[in-house]
Structure formats: C-alpha cells, structure tokens
C-alpha cells in the first residue's frame, strides 16, 4: 500500500485518478503522460523516476547524492503501517527493505509537527539496503527523535557489511553520541529521551567531523569503507535503537561547504530541531 495517489491525463482531454486498489494499468491500454509525482507501486510498464533534486542542492552536485530517505515520500507499507520499503529519493534507487513483519518499523503521522516518522521499536526493527560501496570521504545528514535510551550504545545507523564500517550510535550516559569507522569520535553533547537530533557526520579519516544540534567535534575516525546502509540497528541486528526517523541522506564524495550549510538549514527549518 502506498499513500500517494496517481494522476494521469488520458487522451489529452480526460483526467483519471487511480489508487492501486482501484484497478491496474497495463502497458498499451491507453496513451498517457505523467503530470504528477508517482511514488508507489502502480505498474504502468516503466520505472517510476525519483523527484528532482532539492532546490538547495546545486545541479553540479546532485550526482554526488548517494541516497536520500524521507519519511513523507516513497513509503511502501501494509495496512498496519509496517514499512517493507523506504524508497530512495535520489537517482541510485538504493531502497531500504524489510520482508519480516516483526522487524518492520512503523510509519507514524505527525511525529515531526505535520511530518511523519518511521518508528523503530528498539527490539528488532531494522531496514537495510543492498550492498553498495561507500568509500571515504562521505558525509551523512539526518534528523531523528529519541524515544528511549539505554546504558549501552544503540545503533542509529551502520554499514551493511564488514566490522562496524560507518556507525552512528547513542546511549543515555555521557558521552551520549559517537560515530565510528575504526576509531571512535565523540560529540560533546548529551541528549535525553524526547530530544530531536540533527546530525552531520563526516567520515573522512583524520579529518572527520560530527556535529549534533550545532555542537561539533573533529578528529580521526578511521578509514573503514561503508558497504550499504542499515537503519535502526547494527548490521548484525544486536544493537537496536528506539527512535523515530524523519530524514537521512548521504553524499560521496564530500559536498561543498555551501551545500553543507544548505542541508543543515533545510533540516533545521523543516523539522524545527534547535
């Protein structure tokens, strides 16, 4: 089930609006052109293109957008709002997937003001992409909300293969936020349950950086290569976290300073984090 409705112009004069439940469209059954975004499971004999790059991302840097997941776009879910696929809104179509019902996060309305969130239960929920190489340097931006914290580190995201290849983790005790790619880099900020988090994580060896809600640290993070993306848990599914995710996107290679500033401003303005 996908929330978005699909609107087509038929024979240039007649407009029809369909949801997947109202009937399939088959290739060659009529002539049409797409006049609105189609981000769902409606099969029309051709792949659904992603939306254009955001207005704050210059055209000459759009091709370095490695993935982009938004809770309000590209949601494939069942009648209980359990997410089987979070669709990549970039051009690479590196979708996050889950086939087991018990491990599917729940799509929930109004988690971030008027915007929805994907809630991971902190027990076994996890979404994963297929493997793709994510070589340093790269940078990941995200907004999420902490539901509960625990004494030990829980993984907000991880690489999908190899020994802790690109980790962002948090816990309730100080220091509460770290990133890791062979070496730990700690952010000097402590957060609590209920807090929103806007994070910028630059994985760049000895010149790495983490910024959380405007507070940052730089240092040597290690040089591990990312191999895909795991959300809400570790790649071995043993460190799940209880969070609500709004937005996450990554760049490889590193974006310009202007794009970094634009990305942080976009996330902070949209989700009112700090």
Notes on the protein architecture:
- It contains 1 helix and 22 strands.
- It folds into 2 domains: 1-49, no CATH class; 59-271, Sandwich (Jelly Rolls).
- By secondary structure, it is mainly beta.
Number of DSSP-assigned strands = 22
The CATH architecture category of the largest domain equals Sandwich
Main beta-sheet annotation: 8 strands, antiparallel
Would you state the CATH class of the largest domain? Answer: Mainly Beta
Helix content: under 10%
- CATH topology description of the largest domain: Jelly Rolls
Low-pLDDT parts are: 2-47
The overall average pLDDT, rounded, is 85
**Helix count?**
1
Summarize the helices and strands and which ones pair or pack.
Layout lengths: L5 E5 L3 E5 L13 E3 L30 E6 L4 E3 L5 E4 L9 E2 L8 E7 L2 E7 L5 E2 L4 E2 L3 E9 L7 E5 L8 E4 L6 E4 L3 E4 L8 E8 L4 E5 L2 E5 L6 E2 L2 E2 L10 E10 L5 H15 L3
Antiparallel strand pairs: 1-2, 1-3, 4-22, 5-6, 6-7, 8-9, 9-22, 10-21, 11-20, 12-17, 12-22, 13-14, 13-21, 14-15, 15-16, 17-18, 18-19
